[in-house]
Structures are given as structure tokens and as C-alpha cells.
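Tutorial handout. Part one gives the primary structure; part two gives the three-dimensional structure as C-alpha cells.
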Amino acid sequence: MISWRLAALPVLLLAVAACSQADAERGDEDVLGVLLQSDAPKSAPSTGPALSGADAERFAGYLKSLKEATTLDQAYALAEKIQDLGRGAAPALKEAASSIPELPRIAALSALYSLREWDAAVSGLADIAGGKSPRDIQLPAAELLGQLASPRHEAMLTKALDNTFDVPVRVELSLALWNTAKSTRAKKELTDLLTAESENFRIQAAIALGRIGDIGPARDILSKLADEPTDRGLIAQEILKREKLDRELERIIFNPGGDKKALVTVDTAILGKVMSMLQERSIQTDKLSAQRLTQMAAAGALEGLDPYSVYLDEGLARRVADARQFRVRSLGIALGAAPFREGELLPLPVVASVERDSPAHRAGLMPGDFVFNVAPRTSFDDVCSWREGKKPKPGQVLGENFINGNMAQRAEMMRGAKDESVALLIRRKGWLLSRWVCLTHGDDAPPAASIVTERLPGGICYVLVHEFTPGTPAEFLATLENARAEKVKGLLLDLRESVMGSVEAAVQVAGMLLEEGLLVTWSEGRSETVGQRKEFHSTGKLHETALPLTVLVGAGTADSAEIVAAALQDYGRATIVGSPTFGRAIVQEVFPIAFPVSAGGVHTTESHAILLTTANFYSPKSERRLTGAGVRPSAEREAPKGFEGWVYDELDDLRHSGVLDAYVKDLITNHHDAVLELADGDGGQASRYPGWEAFRKGQKNHLTGDHLRGAVRRELRMSFRASGELKAVADLQEDTIFTAGLKDLAQRAEIDLKQYEEYRSISKG
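Part two.
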């Protein structure tokens, strides 16, 4: 069997060769260089200057606390602080690593890797994974090795595998050995475990074999496992779907007419032989054209790189500006990719960000929700029938076409005209089952302003950034100038809904809050010839460096917004409050391809393109790679987890019945001023809403009073914000991250919140 992960690359070479001469001159050879280079760093560059003064004291304090950490969460938080001290911390951390107890040492070695002491970090983790420690210490070390090790560490991984006899640890080490060195030893270890006495061990080995693409010996176990309504059942389903796609890609067939002249010639002996054999013997001649094969092969070559490197066919290439956004504005969501469970290698489509007051926000979608299926032009009645156990009609849902599509294709499948409905199959971590949700497309246009500014009591300026557009710096400059004129006491910058956007705009905004000439961020590719280091410095006529500043971030903070947050954190300019960001600050380039097409003896070309990730962004002082890791807040606050799936289902029923809308309209019409105040804050007291008891008793569902109160208040807030009557953008009552950021800023700006009636609910005590 031919693996298309390997066989597709020559076809991609042919496709790139078909580019125009002008395209070739602008860097297509560089694209291929990126595809062919090794992932492993060749050697660690020299470290920065040694720590001294206050940083040395901080290091000593962090190290002492790290040695006393009793959980990995504590250890990682402390290791992150050491890492934030920058490259100068590397020598001291490397020297002290052996004196740190093994559990917190895992976090210390992770920080050491981020500080570019790659070999020392991997060696230390291999010693722990292959040691005699309990499983809860060995296992996280082995899992981390799978992410950090490179081919030159094969001997370390093999030695660790030889030295441990704990089966789950052996599974993770085998995965690490295969992922880094493609060692046949890894496959043998996992295959042998398929006959273990323990069913749990057999399942772990089968899933691991599926993750590395060797499903054959594990197929029976995975097929049975796929019927389970569990996380591991879900993983088995996705593995089997991916394997089916691989088999489809291997059905290389010629054109239905059998014209050998129309066959695309591939300059490799293996592909040429396979294509010739299928031309003579295959019975699947109606499935694919030679041109379609070439396109799928090129797409397959990009698949294993990262979730955001994608092949764009003529339709997507024509709308490349939209395609590279991975965003569906009419639903209010941006898409990303992430493993469903930590340590898993399969990246699945996930909601990266949800816009406030959008259809997705109203339906309760949150950043981090996984999207497993899409059903375009599907009614709410259809969704209700699926929730009751009925199956969709053939062709009604996209299924594997969605899961196996690239990021641009997935976003395209979710688009629709205004007022048209689409159903999404959503799964949130912590839910037992997935749920179908029906959304109605709204406007497809971006917000009129990229930022929203609000003056809060106490002299606080609140700025919400929707997206960093070319116009954002001018808007932000005007905001800062007004803030100076009004002598505000503090700035609260909210980046929780900001994804994508312009790097240059983000750098300009960050630069206005830093001193002149400081490094804001830098990007770097995989060699000096492809993706050279590019630095971005603070420039401009205004540099506000004294105004107290707090930045709010969360799982919906990605891309350019992460660059801003990281820079302000590195220089100690702001407190970062919230939950860890998404982790997708990457450089992407579009490379056009003139794709050859033959039909009816006529040879033409179509304009296709490759959207390729060519570099990562880094924080300016600590030199942390933002891709994958994101920004960890200085003051972490857990974002609301939302409800169980059934609550959203019953709230959907309530909305579509018209009862909720009728009650809300009655409140606005007959009790306008009273409910406007409740929309701002109701104190969690449902009884304050006029006619509440009658509304509550009329419901035949399992929703609690607080579920209903929250739904009514959300509808009121959306309505009053749309009319411009509710000026409050943030929610003091429900938004815990906002209130935490507000308290932090008030403390640093010496603002006594107790003096203001508006803050009475959060300033008690």
C-alpha cells in the first residue's frame, strides 16, 4: 500500500512547476524548501546574558517554590515564570534541574526546552520516563517527549523504552519514537500489546497504532470501540474516518474515456507504475479524473504539516482573502484546530472565537467547542428530530467531507445566505454526548468599527478590540488621545474576542503602549533562506507608558491579539488577566499555482494556490514561541464553562416556540425603563422581572429559574445593545474575567471601587 503522505509530494512538485515564471521567481523554490526541511533544530544558539540583580532574585524564589510544588499545574505555573525571565535563565535552570524533584522537574524541563536547551530538556525527560518513578510521573514525561523530541533523540527514546515496564508509559514512548524517528521498534511494541491480557492495555495500543496510521492490526478493536459514546470511542471514530480518506486517495484512476494521452505524467517510478496498473485493471474509472487526483495529492502533501497549511482550489483561491480567515462572520465564529484530548495528535475543527451578540453567541457556543459535523440549509424541525433519535436523510449532513476537509473548506461548508439556517454538531469537553444546534445566518459584514470604547465610572477607559484591521491604529490613537484629554486613571484592554487581523496593526497598537524603539515581536521560519528572522519595533508619535493597564484574554484570543498581549506582558507593561489564549500566532503566505486542466482535448489552466505557514511569532524578551503555547495570563481566571448540552436544547425549544420572544417584547414595550436597568444588572433575582411567575409557570421543561432568568436577561441585553440604549459592553454581573481585570486595574490605579454605586455588586468586603 502506498502512503500518500509520502507519495503526494512529487505530484506537488509537478503542480508547483506549472506556476508561471513570475511566480517561480517570487519564491516557489522557498516553499518547497519549507516542505522538505527537517523539523528538528540543528543546534541550540547561545543563551542570552546571565541573570543579575532583581531577575536573579526572582529566579531563586521561583526555583525554591518549584522544588516544593506538589502538582504539575503548580509546577508549570512556576516554570512559566522562570521562562518569562528570558534566555538568561537557561544556564541556571539547566544546572539546577537535577536537584528538582521529578514531578516539578517535568515542568522545569519543558521551560528549559522553550529556552532552547533542546537536548538537555529531552535527555532529562527521557531519564524520567524510563526511570522507576510512579506512573503519574513517568506518563506526563513520556507524553511531553512526543511533542518535544526530534529524530536525533532516537537513542534516548529507545533507551527509555527499554528501561520501563509500565504499559501506558511504553505506549506513549512508542508514539514518541514513531513520531520523531519512524522507528519500526515503535510499531512492534504497540502491535505486541494488542495481545495483552488487559483489555484497557489492548485499547490503548490500538488507539496508538491508529494515531500513527497503522490501523490494520488494530482495526477490529477500533471498530468495536467506535460504537462507545465515550471520548475514546470518539477518537476511534476519527481514526477510522482518516483511514478511509487515505484509502480513497490511493485509488488513483485515469480518465473515464481511457485516453492515455490525457493521463497526467508523474516523474517517479512508483507513481508511474501504480497509475499504469490502475489504468489497465481498475474498475473504479468513474471516481476521479487525473486532474482531480493531482489536486488531492497536492492537498495530501500539505495535510501533515499543520492544520492551517491548505491547498486552495480555483473557487477558494479566487476568494483567498476570505479563505485564509477561517471565519464565518454570518454565524459569528472563527475556526481553529486542536486535539480533542491533551496528548492526542489528531487536530479536529474547533471554535476559536465567538463574536458577542452573534447567532453563535445567542445559541451558547463558546471558544473551545468542537465541531464534528455540518448540515447546510437545515431547519430547526430537522434538528429536533435528530435530537429525538431520528437519522438525517442521505446527503443531508456533510460528515466525512467536513471532518476531512482543510480549514478553508470547513469554513466554506458552514457559510450561507442571510436568514438561511445551518446545523452544527457540537461537542464540549465535559459533555457525555454531542448536540446538534441550529443557527440562522446573519449579516456577513465586519463591524463598522474595529474597537468599541466605553468610559467606566472611576475614570477607567474600557476598550474592546474586535479585530486588528488597518484602521485599528488610528481608532486606538484617537482613544488614547481622548483618554489623555479626559485624564482617565486606567485602561482596560479586552482582547478576548479578537482573532486573525493585521500583524502590522497589532504592532502599532502595542507600540503606543510601550517606549519608542522596543522590539514588539519577531517572526522566524525554518532556515536563513526561508523565513528569515523579521523584527517588529514600536514606532509612532504617541507612546503612553505611564497609564495603568490591564489586558483581558481568553481562549478566543488568537493571532495578532496574542502578539499584543505577549509584548505587554514581557515588558511588565500590563497585567494579563483571564485564561490561556488559543495559540495561533503564525505567518502565512499565499503561493499561486497555475493548475493544468484537460477536458475534451482542450488544455487550459485554473488559478489555484497554496496557503502555507512559513514562520512563527515569538514574544520579544522571553522569546517564547506563541504558536501552540499562546499567552498564559499573569492572573489566571477560569472562563465560564456554560451549561450541559440538554440545557441549550431546551433553551432552543423555548426560543423557537416564540414564548421567550413574546415575553421579552412585552417587557420592553410595557416596562422599558425597569428592564433596561435589569439588563444592566438584575442581581440574579428573577422575581424582579414583571410577570415572572406567570411566565415561569407556563413553561413545560426542565429548566431552572436561573436558566430562564439568564436567557431573558441575555435577550434583553442583545436587544438594548442593538438599539444603542445599553451602553455597557461588558457585563459586571456575569463576566468573571472582566470583574477580575477591573479589580486588578482599580488596585494599580488606586481607584476605590466602593465609592461607586455601579460597582456595588463586586466591591463588597
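Part three, for discussion. The two ends are 69 Å apart (CA to CA). The longest strand covers residues 602-618.
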